[in-house]
Amino acid sequence: MPDELAKILPFYVVIDVSWSMDGEQLQNANDIMPRLSDALATDPILTDKIRLALVDFAGDAQVRLPLCDLLDPDVVLPGLSCRGSTSYAAAFRLLRKEIEANVTQLKADGFSVHRPAVFFLTDGAPTDTEDEWTSAFRELTEYDRQSNVGFAMYPNVIPFGVKEADPQVLRRLIHPATGTKQSRMYLMDEGNDAAQAIAGMAEIMISSVLSSGTNLAGGDSGLIHPDPADLPSGVAAANANGDFL
To answer: Which architecture characterizes domain 7-238 according to CATH?
Structure first.
């Protein structure tokens, strides 16, 4: 039984596997979890603080790797393949279900759980109706502390967009969008290669996971974003107002 004060930060890597992701884009997306595993292996003490899960989505959403310690010898990293359309709503609904179950279990196991973080990578606009995906996103992210109405376990959401992903849609997925802990989105620079941008975005995810884990290990808390000056070429960061950082 872990020390009840031990804090865990869950990360959910959510990847669009619609048909438009086929080819080198999907190959580089498939490299994200192995690269995260390799990075954590260089500083295994961080695995006491970090848990990761992999979700893919197309016309539906599937948990491809349940929340886990990536360095657990029993973990087998899955390969993703393309299928279907681009249902943001399916991804958001599954995320709410998984986060609620995972956080509840971690707390039952004696952990203190930091607010989860979602890396949401897509190359296109949602094929759901606007009412469908916005409603599912509200169910995932809205919570009022005074009335205790909504989803108290809501995650921080960090969108990543390449190719045909609409920045005006993605900025609506940034959560929280305001305040001292506001999140941000990462976009492929216009004219850049989408597969190369995904590889660069993997670097951003790795940096955030390692920095956040180091922060927790040092007794602090909070999701850490890379400094905009340190971003890989071909990728830019922006806030919920659409202002580039």
So the answer is: 3-Layer(aba) Sandwich (3.40)
